[in-house]
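As the next step, I needed to go through one protein, both as residues and as discrete backbone shape codes, included below for the reader:
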Amino acid sequence: MPDPAARSPKAEQTRGTILESAMRLFRRDGYDRTTMRAIASEAGVSVGNAYYYFGSKEHLIQAFYDQVQVEHADAAAGVLERETSFEARLRGVLEAWLEVAEPSHEFAGQFFKNAADPRSPLSPFSVESTPARRASTALYARVLDGTDLKLPANLRRELPELLWLLQMGVVLFWVYDDSPDQRRSRELVSRLVPIVTRTVRLSRLPVVRGLVDDVLGLVNALRPPPPPPAAG
């Protein structure tokens, strides 16, 4: 695939057209039934050209993940500029994700069975998903940076990633949420955020600090090792 930094405006447009075409077909026909040949036909390009920009359907989903992260950050910008309380900022960012993801709900469950496989490149924990994961974690770091929340240093360092894991739990619930307009997912966020806020604020108490240290130690112990550096 071409280096993103070296793409011309025309190449970016072609790449965008292929990605948009793939998303239309995934929503209409399902992820498993959509082929790269069908995507190329929908985009009006040759199959070879489609493979030039995206080596597989999995690469298309990775590009979709990256696009959702950009849209999520844009959708959350208003609440991060407007709100200063941790609770309001966290709720706003999670609700912004639900808004951005809503058009993709119908086909999300179709590729989730692939994403749920820890060996799949579609897994949010995979090496291939690292850019999207880092972008989301950085967004939750911004949630913290704009507040006056007082936290132990070790918790502040780890909390953005823990909040990303919280979002992954919301995503899992949302994928299976068949309520109208995914109202149950919105209710989950509404009820969950105050609990998280209270828990985070309690971490300052000396009686709780030891428990926080133990939990963070467990998280670090279970964290997978970083991927080996690329050859060369």
In short: The chain has a mean pLDDT of 86. The first helix runs from residue 9 to 29. The two ends are 18 Å apart (CA to CA).
